[in-house]
Design goal:
The structure is a single chain. With 316 residues, the protein is an alpha/beta fold. It contains eleven helices and eleven strands. Strands 6-5-4-7-8-11-10 form a seven-stranded mixed β-sheet, with helices on both faces. The chain has a four-stranded antiparallel β-sheet with strand order 1-2-3-9, with no helix packed on it. It is globular and about 50 Å long. The termini are far apart. Zinc ion binds next to loops.
Length: 316
């Protein structure tokens, strides 16, 4: 399946010309229709999914496909919930890495943007934070409120909290944003003067992306609209007037497992069933982690791990 030609698709950061990097991508996670490509800016290197669905289309795609058909009592979800609420999960975070900032102890006010059903809110609260969530999906927000949390459903730009936050968490959120610079700009007034934004997202400069090609789990078309590298995310933060405090990468064993499954069983145009088979995924993830060769840690240190972790502060 060929991707449509990419004339006149400017870069989302600098507005310069883009070139076609990869085509023939499809939604292998949820089975939404359509073929997608990845375009790269010829100037700044930012990568984007193309065609980028219109905001109204995206809303419909999320409602129809995102996690749809995975019933709340499915074996996959049941196992996942039990794991996340167990002490085993905290051990796993220390061993494998922490893309959701779920292991960080601290104090002060924390806002989780895109808090979903509030699983992260429970963990942040256990770690010492006073937590609130922001979630556009009303039914997910309702579930988080049932867990006892304060969850807002206002769009980020219209949200005005009673007090600013010490931490705003954007865990695997920015790559979904229609306009990531705008999202970061809208976060700024929510922060206290020394407040931090904690960002995690897939790393487009990851070694795994080169190893797995089209089967890399983090293309996640059409839901991931942007694919950031350390370099392009730095540019984005500059534009929104933040400075980076720390930047790291790591390679979650789950993501490597999912990419292997997509590589083994990927068929154009369909939802992949292998990555929904919870016992298989759990076993593979554990096995991969056990046999992680030590040189993989060097890859992470060279900023070529699969997940980017950034702590940033707003400039005055
Ligand atoms: Zn650019």
């Amino acid at each position: 399946m060929g991707a449509p030609p990419n004339h006149n698709r400017p870069c989302g950061i600098c507005g310069q010309r883009t070139r076609l990097l990869l085509d023939g991508l499809f939604d292998d996670r949820f089975g939404a229709p359509g073929a997608y490509a990845i375009l790269q800016c010829t100037n700044c290197g930012l990568e984007q999914t193309w065609p980028r669905p219109a905001a109204s289309e995206l809303k419909e795609l999320y409602e129809r496909f995102y996690n749809a058909g995975i019933s709340p009592d499915s074996a996959y979800r049941g196992l996942r919930e039990r794991f996340f609420s167990s002490g085993l999960y905290r051990l796993w975070l220390q061993w494998d890495g922490d893309m959701g900032f779920h292991g960080r102890q601290g104090a002060g006010r924390l806002l989780d943007v895109g808090c979903n059903e509030g699983r992260g809110l429970s963990l942040y609260a256990d770690n010492g934070f006073q937590v609130e969530g922001l979630e556009m999906n009303e039914s997910a927000a309702a579930l988080a409120r049932q867990r006892g949390f304060r969850v807002h459903t206002a769009p980020l730009g219209q949200f005005s909290p009673q007090e600013p936050f010490d931490v705003v968490v954007l865990a695997n959120v920015l790559e979904h944003a229609w306009d990531p610079v705008q999202m970061l700009t809208e976060v700024r007034p929510l922060l206290r003067p020394q407040g931090e934004v904690w960002i995690s997202c897939p790393n487009a400069a990851s070694l795994w992306r080169r190893v797995f090609g089209r089967a890399w789990v983090n293309w996640h078309a059409p839901f991931h609209l942007w694919h950031f590298s350390p370099k392009t995310l730095q540019k984005l933060l500059d534009l929104a007037n933040y400075r980076i405090i720390t930047i790291n990468t790591f390679s979650p064993a789950l993501w490597v497992t999912q990419s292997i499954c997509l590589k083994l069983s990927g068929k154009a145009g369909g939802r992949n069933r292998l990555i929904r088979c919870a016992p298989l995924i759990a076993l593979m993830t554990l096995t991969i982690k056990l046999f992680y060769p030590p040189f993989f840690h060097n890859i992470n240190r060279q900023m070529a791990g699969d997940c980017l972790i950034i702590v940033a502060k707003a400039n005055k």
